[in-house]
């Protein structure tokens, strides 16, 4: 419920909230921290921090490569959690962890969820945590007061969306197209109508990710989605132009409000 209250409070003064993304340890922890500082100073509302994994099934080629690069440099789960603890203590903003179920399984699911609470993480996104199988995870999040974010797709019917809403908390993460991260999405009327249905069927706030490239994409979502998630484009800006170029890009995205 913490995230739901936070979203409601932020939306009193904003038409749409902005959530940004970083893969922890890529290209390095220093760049991660500079990016987070940029996000915070420009008014980003939530930050999704991804713990690298060797088989990130929901991620496109760019993120898969970045996950692998971080792992090859020796980035460990403990380092990631220590980094999040440091950052969450420094910036008064809502942080979420994104990773894959094997990370939780190896760490110990109850222990991982408890650790998230200790380091001030408000939500967890685990794309491969099936709602009808990962009971330990969903129950653990509920018990610890952490939002387990569930994911809907264009193929999720009303019954499925209702089940996702019951299993999870905070908001529904809607993926507006088939495939993985990193590709451009056409936010046409069909896509916008589906987002509206997800919101209606779930009774929850809806965040939209996968394919948001610029300010115009975010503007298309205003009045339909509650949260716009930008990930791959941020990584591309940093890779192509350097961390210094991120400020203007994030300013542009946040100026929608």
UniProtKB/TrEMBL annotation:
<comment type="function">
    <text>The alpha subunit is responsible for the aldol cleavage of indoleglycerol phosphate to indole and glyceraldehyde 3-phosphate.</text>
</comment>
<comment type="similarity">
    <text>Belongs to the TrpA family.</text>
</comment>
<dbReference type="InterPro" id="IPR002028">
    <property type="entry name" value="Trp_synthase_suA"/>
</dbReference>
<feature type="active site" description="Proton acceptor">
    <location>
        <position position="59"/>
    </location>
</feature>
<dbReference type="GO" id="GO:0004834">
    <property type="term" value="F:tryptophan synthase activity"/>
</dbReference>
<dbReference type="InterPro" id="IPR018204">
    <property type="entry name" value="Trp_synthase_alpha_AS"/>
</dbReference>
<keyword id="KW-0057">Aromatic amino acid biosynthesis</keyword>
<feature type="active site" description="Proton acceptor">
    <location>
        <position position="48"/>
    </location>
</feature>
<comment type="subunit">
    <text>Tetramer of two alpha and two beta chains.</text>
</comment>
<dbReference type="InterPro" id="IPR011060">
    <property type="entry name" value="RibuloseP-bd_barrel"/>
</dbReference>
<comment type="pathway">
    <text>Amino-acid biosynthesis; L-tryptophan biosynthesis; L-tryptophan from chorismate: step 5/5.</text>
</comment>
<dbReference type="InterPro" id="IPR013785">
    <property type="entry name" value="Aldolase_TIM"/>
</dbReference>
<dbReference type="Pfam" id="PF00290">
    <property type="entry name" value="Trp_syntA"/>
</dbReference>
<keyword id="KW-0822">Tryptophan biosynthesis</keyword>
<dbReference type="GO" id="GO:0005829">
    <property type="term" value="C:cytosol"/>
</dbReference>
<protein>
    <recommendedName>
        <fullName>Tryptophan synthase alpha chain</fullName>
        <ecNumber>4.2.1.20</ecNumber>
    </recommendedName>
</protein>
<keyword id="KW-0456">Lyase</keyword>
<keyword id="KW-0028">Amino-acid biosynthesis</keyword>
